[in-house]
């Protein structure tokens, strides 16, 4: 939809009106036949039609183009009232700058920022409303440190709130202790399995070393027996030599 033509000051050229909604062009697009439309209007039209609403020539979304520069400049120079005129704003600005003004306009109707509050109020009066809003939050004046809403003042009980907070902290602490306990048990189990595996490997290595040592001792005994046999043979040969 376009800008309401009643908001504009002075004459508005017919060529700057949307051919569908007949208001002043907003975010305009132009067809090959040079008829101009608001983007939202022409997109909505082409959902159910395939031609120009003015001259019935066939058009497609892909054929739509931005407005000619000179027409865009004429459009941006148009003067119009702020949309908050009914609330007291008397600002008149160009179409090119109206959006920026309206985002900051002190007469804009905005919602209270306090959770739960549904009040719509002018931007210029927001600070005053926030100071008295029944949904505003503040710290308990009795020193318990709890944040309360003004509407809850009569129901607020420091002891009850602190007891609730304590129970929450206790529950959280128990959960954390349990988590730490499970984590430590998991780590210990992992280390225990690792140590058992390592012990098994070491035991196998020890058995292998014992086996190797046994074989070496057997070889040594065989060598010593062979040496004794050789020495005896030498002694016998020496005796025979002496007898000869």
UniProtKB/TrEMBL annotation:
One of its GO terms (biological process) is regulation of canonical NF-kappaB signal transduction. Residues 101-144 form the TRAF-type domain. Pfam families: zf-C3HC4_2, zf-TRAF. A zinc finger (TRAF-type) spans 101-144. The keyword Ligase applies. One of its GO terms (molecular function) is ligase activity. Keywords: Coiled coil, Ligase, Metal-binding, Zinc, Zinc-finger. Residues 192-243 form a coiled coil. It comes from Columbina picui. Residues 18-56 form the RING-type domain. This is RNF41 ligase.
């Amino acid at each position: 939809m376009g800008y309401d033509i009643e908001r504009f000051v002075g004459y508005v050229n017919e060529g700057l009106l949307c051919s569908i909604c007949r208001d002043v062009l907003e975010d305009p697009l132009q067809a090959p036949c040079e008829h101009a439309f608001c983007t939202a209007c022409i997109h909505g039209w082409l959902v159910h039609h395939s031609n120009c609403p003015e001259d019935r020539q066939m058009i497609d979304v892909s054929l739509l183009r931005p407005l000619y520069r000179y027409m865009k400049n004429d459009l941006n120079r148009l003067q119009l009232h702020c949309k908050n005129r009914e609330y007291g704003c008397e600002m008149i600005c160009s179409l090119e700058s109206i959006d920026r003004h309206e985002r900051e306009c002190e007469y804009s109707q905005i919602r209270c920022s306090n959770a739960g509050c549904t009040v719509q109020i002018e931007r210029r009066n927001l600070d005053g409303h926030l100071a008295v809003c029944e949904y505003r939050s503040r710290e308990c004046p009795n020193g318990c440190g709890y944040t309360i809403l003004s509407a809850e003042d009569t129901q607020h009980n420091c002891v009850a709130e602190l007891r609730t907070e304590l129970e929450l902290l206790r529950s959280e602490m128990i959960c954390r202790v349990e988590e730490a306990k499970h984590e430590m048990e998991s780590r210990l189990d992992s280390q225990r399995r690792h140590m058992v595996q390592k012990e098994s490997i070491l035991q196998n290595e020890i058995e292998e070393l014992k086996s190797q040592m046994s074989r070496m001792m057997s070889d040594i005994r065989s060598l010593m027996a062979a040496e004794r046999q050789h020495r005896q043979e030498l002694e016998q040969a020496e005796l025979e030599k002496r007898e000869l």
